[in-house]
Amino acid sequence: MPSSPVKVAILGTGNIGTDLMFKLLRQPGALQLALFAGVDPKSDGLARARNAGVATTDRGIDAILEATDIKLVFDATSARAHLRHAPALAAAGRVAVDLTPAACGPCVVPPVNLRAHLDSANVNLITCGGQATIPLVHAVSRVTPVSYAEIVSTVASASAGPGTRQNIDEFTFTTARGLEALGGATAGKAIIILNPADPPILMRNTVYLIPEGDFDDAAVTRSIEQMVSSVAEYVPGYRLKSAPVFDTVKYGGAVQRSITLLLEVEGAGDYLPKYAGNLDIMTAAAWRVGQVFAAQKPKIKAMA
Amino acid sequence: MSSNFDHPMAPDRSAAGGNKVLAQPKPAQPKPPRITDSSLRDGSHPMRHQFTVEQVRTVARALDEAGVPVIEVSHGDGLGGSSLQYGFSLVDEMELIAAAREACTRAKIAVLLLPGVGTKKELHEAVRRGATVVRIATQCTEADVSEQHFGLAKELGLEAVGFLMMAHMRPPAVLAEQARLMESYGADCVYVVDSAGAMLPRDAAARVAALKQALRCQVGFHAHNNLGVAIGNSLAALEAGAEQIDGCLRGLGAGSGNAPTELLAAVLDKLGLNPGLDVFKLCDAAEYVLAPMMPFQPFPNRDAITIGYAGVYSTFLLHARRAGEKYGLDPREILVELGRRKAMAGQEDWILDVAQDLVLRRLAPERKT
């Protein structure tokens, strides 16, 4: 029996916030978008929201704090802004889903560890590369221990905003840490490449894994396939380009078996172009977290 | 003999009432360029990143004794490049940097940093080990990813050099804009980097000239020899105003290698532009120190020529050959397809992808009905 929807707000009216808005309008699920909050009254995102019939404000977080019926807030501003927003939202008893690199709360990847954080008041979505590749590392490490995981994310230049460009080191650190902490690899490494080709390329990720020892190819392949379908539930354009490639490599002075996965992420095109799978996977993950929280999170249920 | 080739070294016809509407500003008389030797960085590619401490020490000492002022030492793909994507280093590059530092009495040690691969953390460590010059490399369209790294370099008091890779892919005006960004972040010099060895002398000259016009800082040129014109391109760059030029002993570098440092020294000496290099000592270093370490002599062979012709990253050479062996493909097919897909610097992972697609295409050729 469906209960009444949980009221949510989006804070930040840039590309990410606007794309998330269109996702929530197209597929509200258990959520109701009650407010779209920015700080620039002339922003393109606010105009689009008004045209779509969404309640808007240019008073940012203040307007959200005043609207006590809003239980969950997606923050799509910036790391610096979220560091201010996080304590204010927590004090007001609102749940925060953080799409910035601020990472005040635990990092989550929906099919990997969301269930473990259902009572957190603030969760962070790591990076686009992390959302794309950590599930695959986890899919292998749950079958066989992984010594080393390395990912290469290639995104279209046109889809990399100033936030990513000015903080490219943070992308590599945060993603690499995620490969270890959430993916389950003993050591992680992340590389990001911007490709300026026109027409823009789809987001591409290569995941290299070195398991500790020998492993059952079929079991690994099965686990990866299951994980790809789990992610594809909320990111329909998430797909492997080919079957896992098994090879050998010299690592730590010994010849070890390796696994290479070629992953493509096509965006849903809700607002952002389809090639921007790197942005889509962030808003899709946020959407997913919101739905799961609304359905299961004890605190939100109590508040509702 | 006459030629339609608009060679930048040719006499200026515009001055003699030629058919050019506007006379180009004549570049100032070339000065002896500063040479950076990259045998121990670009050379890491053909060495498959297997340089030992002893090898680095000997090469660095020989270069230092021959008067080379800057010696670059890092993984071929820059700090933090040791990876499955590019190849693991045999020895931690930080140890190699320290070894080179200890071996030199005069030369500065430079490191390469590609934002997105290496980070400020590795740069801090490299400086602790003795590096005083950092070369910060981005795709030629993405200079704005380098702002934080230039910021750190200046904070640490380093000489900071910008490296615009795959520079053949964009016209001179676009490169100049990107170079201006690097200059605004604090670059002391910006290089036009012909990572694909795809330029001809006129291409090198036009790009260097555009940067010279746009920048107050110095301009450099880094050649690859895939089309056999590394020295010619370096001279064209010099004529167009470049103040810094790269070389590698015996041309040891990615693809068919770079401008050989000893050859560059001989040519510059003949031009009266020798910046203080000992030509004979460099020739000896190339012949007796470096050559015996080399697994092969980089040369514009059929695969390397294809790289220059298709305009893809020189480093793809060995990776494409390996994929060709694994999938029973001609590496040239892979390289041409990578060029068609506009692969950029560092996209070695696309090689596997392209090889698989080519195999699929072969198994299921399109049938027209």
Which CATH C-level class of the largest domain in chain A is it?
Answer: Alpha Beta
Can you tell me the residue ranges of chain B where pLDDT is under 50 for at least 5 consecutive residues? Answer: 1-21
* Average residue-wise pLDDT of chain A: 94
Proportion of residues in β-strands of chain A: 25-35%
**Rg of chain A (CA only):** 19 Å
* Shape field of chain B: globular
Integer average pLDDT of chain B:
93
Describe this structure in words.
Chain A has 304 residues and is an alpha/beta fold. Chain A folds into two domains: 141 residues, NAD(P)-binding Rossmann-like Domain (Rossmann fold), CATH 3.40.50; 146 residues, Dihydrodipicolinate Reductase, domain 2 (2-Layer Sandwich). Helices cover 39% and strands 26% of the residues of chain A. In chain A, helix 6 runs antiparallel to helix 9 and helix 6 crosses helix 10. The longest helix of chain A has 20 residues. Chain A is globular. Chain B has an eight-stranded parallel barrel, surrounded by seven helices. Chain B folds into two domains: 267 residues, Aldolase class I (TIM Barrel), CATH 3.20.20.70; 62 residues, Helicase, Ruva Protein, domain 3 (Orthogonal Bundle), CATH 1.10.8.60. At the A-B interface, strand 7, helix 7, helix 8, strand 8 and strand 9 of A face helix 4 and helix 13 of B.
Question: Summary?
Answer:
The complex is a heterodimer of chains A (304) and B (369). Chain A has helices at residues 15-26, 44-51, 60-66, 79-91, 110-113, 128-141, 162-166, 168-181, 217-232, 277-296, 298-303; strands at 6-11, 31-37, 56-57, 72-75, 95-98, 122-124, 146-156, 185-195, 203-211, 238-240, 245-251, 254-265.
Topology, element by element:
The complex is a heterodimer of chains A (304) and B (369).
Chain A: E1 6-11, H1 15-26, E2 31-37, H2 44-51, E3 56-57, H3 60-66, E4 72-75, H4 79-91, E5 95-98, H5 110-113, E6 122-124, H6 128-141, E7 146-156, H7 162-166, H8 168-181, E8 185-195, E9 203-211, H9 217-232, E10 238-240, E11 245-251, E12 254-265, H10 277-296, H11 298-303
Parallel strand pairs in A: 1-2, 1-4, 2-3, 4-5, 5-6, 7-8
Antiparallel strand pairs in A: 7-9, 9-12, 10-12, 11-12
Helix pairs in contact in A: 1-2, 1-10, 6-8, 6-9, 6-10
Chain B: E1 34-37, H1 53-65, E2 70-72, H2 93-103, E3 108-113, H3 120-128, E4 133-139, H4 147-155, E5 159-165, H5 172-185, E6 189-193, H6 201-214, E7 218-222, H7 230-239, E8 244-247, H8 261-270, H9 279-290, H10 302-310, H11 316-327, H12 331-340, H13 349-363
Parallel strand pairs in B: 1-2, 1-8, 2-3, 3-4, 4-5, 5-6, 6-7, 7-8
